[in-house]
């Protein structure tokens, strides 16, 4: 392979708090919307909850040793808002902050750069009870929380990510009902998307006001290129609607200085967009130091009938699109199409669409396949190798690659059924067993270092 990656390119892995920490009532942690949602019968496969997850809250030292043995330069993790502020406002739980201080100190001791994400979907239930992300006040509370954590950990952390994937938070959580908090709304989901972005901008502003010059701030978005299932005008229009909902709704305000064209027409029957206020675009579009891109697969879509005939009663997820069309390509154990060149397309497409785009990181990329008894996961090795090469092929300012995930974990509405980890976790005993892909990635990183990235 001929490297096109810059000096200092970071190789890492990623996790999130609710998916691995467990200990959901330990040391004063408050309930999150995912604690509440996973307690609803039928909401999560198998009736699974955030307990025990990978019990990372108690086993973090051993997990950091796995990171050190893996040889990564950076570790992307998230901070649990209800572990720091049990109700999302007011009182701070010192034991929660101390846990994350120990974690980042442990990373620094092992020569690993911490890349914390401040919000990875686990909104404190106390804020949801007040309206959640539908409410503008939640954006302000998020900025307060971000400034608080930054002030506490800023001496050890230089790279700060505000949000992970606001699209699933807003659309899957408030529009489709398949993620927490389980709502199926139109106006509420659109308001949630806007307030997530507003909270991001307010948080960046608040942290920058107290940050030294070397601190960098960014956001992470999921980027699935949308492909029409045929050459028909109807499928092309469906792809345009899906892209507006999934990508432009977020990337245009962040990097294009505008709201995504078409959204108001698509949802005029369910929302008056009164949540938008003068000055919001300027706050949302504050310059960033990096953008994280999460890529798993392309979306192949076709035109379809609306599920709800009455436009005024539609959820934001009902846009006349069929996303079940799959190309004739290999699929992962979750049924997702394996199309590595979609990652190249996602990265290059962002660069071409937004001239003021900041440097990029691939912040999540990974897969699920059935386990063998010897944990020889050759399919995952092939998947990662091909996607790393696809990232390398993109002519963009790419600064790092993070594999999802270090550990098997709670996979949201899928519960514990699917395993993304480079390391297998036996949930009954909490034993960690590195898979063949862990050893492959370790050797790959070592080889990249020898070649100078």
From TrEMBL:
UniProt keyword annotations, A-Z: Carbohydrate metabolism, Cellulose degradation, Glycosidase, Hydrolase, Polysaccharide degradation
Binding site for substrate: 19, 120, 164, 296, 404, 411-412
GO MF annotation list: beta-glucosidase activity
Catalytic activity: Hydrolysis of terminal, non-reducing beta-D-glucosyl residues with release of beta-D-glucose
Any matching Pfam family: Glyco_hydro_1
Annotated active site: 165 (proton donor), 364 (nucleophile)
EC number: 3.2.1.21
Gene3D superfamilies attached to this UniProt entry: Glycosidases (3.20.20.80)
One cellular component (GO) term of this entry: cytosol
InterPro entries: GH (IPR017853), GH_1_N_CS (IPR033132), Glyco_hydro_1 (IPR001360), Glyco_hydro_1_beta-glucosidase (IPR017736)
GO terms classed as biological process: cellulose catabolic process
Family to which the UniProt record says this protein belongs: Belongs to the glycosyl hydrolase 1 family.
Name recorded for this polypeptide: Beta-glucosidase
